[in-house]
Design a protein that fits this description.
The chain has about 475 residues and is mainly α. It has five domains: about 80 residues; about 100 residues; about 60 residues; about 100 residues, no CATH class; about 30 residues, no CATH class. About 70% of the residues lie in helices and about 0% in strands. It is built from 17 helices and no strands. The longest helix is centred in the first third of the chain and has 53 residues. The chain is flat, with a radius of gyration of 46 Å. The C terminus is likely disordered.
Amino acid sequence: MAEEALGITVKELKQKITLAKSTFTKQANFLSRVAKHMTKRELQEEFKKLKSEARTVSETNDEYRAGLLADIEAGTDEGEEAELSKEKQAELEKTFQECEARLDEVREIVQANLWPRYGENEVKSAIHEAETACDGVAQIPVTAVNRDGFELRWDCVKTQVQNAIASLAEWEMWIPVAEKERLGGRVKDLKAFGNYLEARRAGFLTAQRIAGDERDRGRVPQVPMPAPQPTLRIKPICLPKFSGYKRNFLRWRRDWESLQKQGEPTGSVEVKRIQLIDSIDERICRGLRLSSYNTAEDMFRLLENRYGNKSTIALEIMEDLEKIPALRANQPRKVIDMIQTIEKALDDLTELGNTGAINNPLVIRSIESKLPDDIKREWLVFMVNPRNNVTPDNHFENLLKFLKTQEEILEKLEQLGVSERPEKRNACMERKYASTRSTTKGGCVVCVVMKSTEKIYSFASVSRN
């Protein structure tokens, strides 16, 4: 019987297998629900517990099978072979298969979180660093003077190759099948290249020995030193930062995605998310709670809704043009700034595909009204000239062409130090009109002669008298 063979009854074995299956299922359900919120260490430890529970289910299932067989053997005649019924056999097999299937399902969930978030970047970075180091060492010329430098760099290369091999071995069970063969091939090439560099050391030893023999014989040949190669130092480029200005959003997103893809070719989801958060003004991140989103695509979707509406951006561009004040003739720098503002507005609207907004007659009239009087007069002369063929359809195009010409003229005048401020008129200008002084109490001089003080007479009447 089972109690004599295993020290436990079949009923107790049944309870034990039920408890093991329940514990395994709880652990599997827990890991499936919270895997995306766990760290690398937590995922590995929890999956290790799940494997232990799966082993317990398998072992308990085997004990239950052995207990059933022991009970059957106790009830059969000697010499007969004990066999389980088809129902019991199917039940035991079902328990084993369900356990394996559930374990594989949770393994895929853990793999989908561990590999993209942690393993992929770690393995690919280690392999890339080792490949770059091997290429650098392979380019060192085989000469006696380069032997010490080769040895020093070779020690570093060996360390990096070993790190790449160890990194692949650590993550091997979590690498997707589609990538496992490719990454394994790269590591295999690193091992082969390492053997080639190891054999290359003999060339440096030979070169050093020949140089020593030549030196001993006093016939040291003059080895020409290689010409120094120019070193190109490229300044690291930072990802563009978005400050919340709607007009810059679409251009910023295009530039950011292009530069981020060049700087992070592995396409790591977590790296892209962190870089995007660092590229957005902290005030916007707090206001929109961007750190709570799991992917960069979710954050871009929110930013697109808030800052990427093309109609709103076009309206903001037109409002900026409307805010430009009317200019005077003695403000050449402000005129240049105004022309450049109009050019940028046209570029932004072209990128939005909405150039019709700036071709509106009301907008054109508003721009013309803000021009200084002298430029406005020149524009009117330009516009009425039949040779220029200014029509309502090409009104803005000709206006912008005319303003660009004025911009060049004003820039040259500013470089030459010529100011358009009118000269001050002489404060002491020649008097062009007559003035009278107040008379004394004696009255007018003429009136005094006429002996009629304090009376004013018409000079015409006086002359007749």
